[in-house]
Design brief:
Helix content is about 30%, strand content about 15%. With about 325 residues, it is an alpha+beta fold. The chain binds iron/sulfur cluster (2 copies).
């Protein structure tokens, strides 16, 4: 990755929500899962490391074992990369040299109307379910005699999930700021595990997606907050293919996101869903394009205290 030193500060989600007028989404199911993540999953992040170490022949064998366990525990995608300074939030420290990135797909059928109660629940369901996979895999790694650290998908992590996912071969960065996997599209969530266990690493992919984004602007057109840029930003550093990155204007996106069921419109409208893999594999009737509900955007979050602002605020503003 280029621009290694330019990681943004750690992100205080609760502060941000209150600064942009509050998280006004109240869905019992979402609250229940959020509470479970904070009160039950957080306390299971750690577990004892076996004093007897399982020795693998080489990093390839170790990586193959970890990947097969990740899939067995419920991950849909898994990849491994080295952790570099630019992958760590500014102000945080990660000593472990390797990250195991894990992803789980969200169900297409819950994104047939966006934003919606259903899509908000599905986002939280996957944060919770992927969290379980990660906690289980971390416990397995420790049972093999190797220490490791859980980097939960919900957001209070030390590692930045996006650069880790890109380096671990999950796909390319789309105009909407999310990774597009060549097979899963953008409808998945990510988390990771940091470990000193010696593992063979994966590599970023070039599947022509970034190139396609230059012509396609579907997410930009449908973004109700006008947060998705027309052009790449030279100020924001390069993506893993050496292109200037697209930077979503979070001062526009987040207030909308916080008021309208985590918005997510940019994910199901992304062209990379509208292929064979967008079908619902459990037999539910779905249509290829979602119904989009576009409300008036709330005021911009420019008045937010600097310490609580997202680092990319205001980039790409005319
Ligand atoms: S989540 Fe909604 S407001 Fe934010 S960038 Fe995507 S479409 Fe725009
Ligand atoms: S909708 Fe089009 S421009 Fe936006 S991320 Fe998807 S492919 Fe790229």
């Amino acid at each position: 990755m280029s621009d290694k030193a330019a990681s943004p500060p750690a992100f205080a989600w609760d502060d941000w929500y209150s600064a942009v007028g509050g998280r006004t989404i109240h869905i019992d199911e979402v609250e229940r899962m959020l509470k479970e993540i904070r009160e039950d999953q957080y306390r299971r992040f750690d577990s004892p490391v076996n004093s007897h170490k399982t020795i693998f022949k080489n990093p390839q064998e170790a990586a193959a074992h970890i990947k097969s366990k990740a899939l067995e525990f419920g991950a849909d995608i898994v990849g491994i990369c080295e952790i570099e300074p630019g992958d760590v939030y500014k102000g945080k420290t990660v000593q472990e040299p390797f990250a195991i990135a894990l992803g789980q797909r969200m169900r297409w059928r819950e994104f047939q109307v966006v934003p919606s109660r259903e899509s908000a629940i599905e986002c939280m369901r996957i944060y919770h379910s992927l969290g379980e996979v990660i906690i289980r895999l971390a416990a397995h790694i420790r049972s093999l005699g190797y220490p490791c650290k859980v980097e939960h998908p919900i957001g209070d992590s030390d590692l930045l999930h996006i650069p880790i996912g890109l380096k671990a071969g999950f796909g390319e960065l789309g105009r909407h700021g999310s990774i597009i996997h060549p097979k899963l599209g953008p409808l998945f969530r990510m988390g990771s595990i940091a470990t000193p266990m010696q593992l063979q690493i994966d590599h970023p992919v070039d599947a022509g997606i970034g190139k396609f984004c230059e012509k396609c602007k579907a997410c930009r057109i449908y973004c109700p907050a006008k947060a998705i840029p027309d052009n790449r930003s030279a100020e924001a550093g390069k993506d893993h293919l050496g292109n200037d990155r697209y930077v979503v204007d979070t001062a526009r996106c987040f207030p909308y996101f916080a008021k309208h069921n985590y918005c997510s419109i940019c994910l199901p409208v992304c062209v990379y869903n509208h292929k064979e893999w967008a079908k619902d594999f459990e037999g539910f009737q779905t249509s290829l394009f979602p119904e989009i509900i576009m409300e008036e955007p709330p005021p911009l979050a420019d008045d937010v205290d600097d310490a609580k602002k997202h680092a990319y605020n205001k980039l790409n503003r005319p």
